[in-house]
Amino acid sequence: MALRLFLLAATWITAQARAEVMEIPVHFVVLTNRPEVIAKATEDAFRKELENLNRNFAGADKSPLARFTYKSLTRYDEIKDSPCAIVQNAVRKLDTAEWALRDIWHCLDTRVIDYSAFNYFLIDSYSRKNGYGETISYGFAGTGTREIQGVFIDHFFLGNESVHMHEFGHAFGLDHNWPKDNVMSGGPYTNGFSNAQVKIIAKQIAEVSRKLVTQPVPDRLHNGTFDTDLGCRMWEPCGLYYPGHNSKYAGLAHKGKMSQKFMNRAAGKYSLTVFVNAWGPGGTIAITVNGVARKVIPLVGDGGIDKPWRQVTIEGITLKAQDLVEFVVTGGEKHVWFDDVVWQKAD
Question: Would you say the pTM of this structure is higher than 0.85?
């Protein structure tokens, strides 16, 4: 009976461990226009990579650390018009080492980067020394426009399980400073990650990967609030003096500007409303489209602690899909508070 209870307990623990393995969606991007790469960058090829990862991305005891699932695929022709530097530089004869890990943090085009997934970029690496014979690849994770995690894999390594394990290891917090028989130092991938590495990977999954599937998409939030990530957390009394306009997304422009950029998804006419309390000389609210000011509204400096907030409405903003829009509040010598920013389609 005792043996049977032990076996049942061991089975339950194993099942529980499997249940706790996080499912991580993967967004694939073919970041090159070279025909020979496009020809082999098929959905089937990418799904095969995930099968290999799910078999190998494990500890030394072969217990899985995560489960990677196929989410989507974007080809270069679908994003060649993107303003993101990462898209434009990928097809220029520039050292991959100069642009990949620099440009990844600034792209706002959600066709290119899926901020709710792990991003896998298939590239054709280039260097002045080796030309397109270069095979440099990377794994990365961190905070740029939003939390982001992913890999750049040179097409030469499509199907190479060692390289995928190595670069995914980087994306989950591992460096090169491990024993030579470890995959992170050029050793075989079949040994799995060590116990020490498993702890680092688990921490990265908890602190980064779990954010990916829940963080808001960095573009317009219809009938919602722009994520200015400033405001009453910066100056606590604002919540006392400004009932109704004290959200955690309240913004403050003081001797400078606060702004938010986003990629517009659907063509049409849009309107913006925002509540402001402009002190002193006031300031301005502006909407720019693709770097050009479209609407600029002056703010009269008649606000203050005992003054009511004023609603400002900007209508008739005509946009195309994938226009880069920026909402900007500029303050003078004193404060311009703003909150409850609502951007919505008018037709």
Answer: no
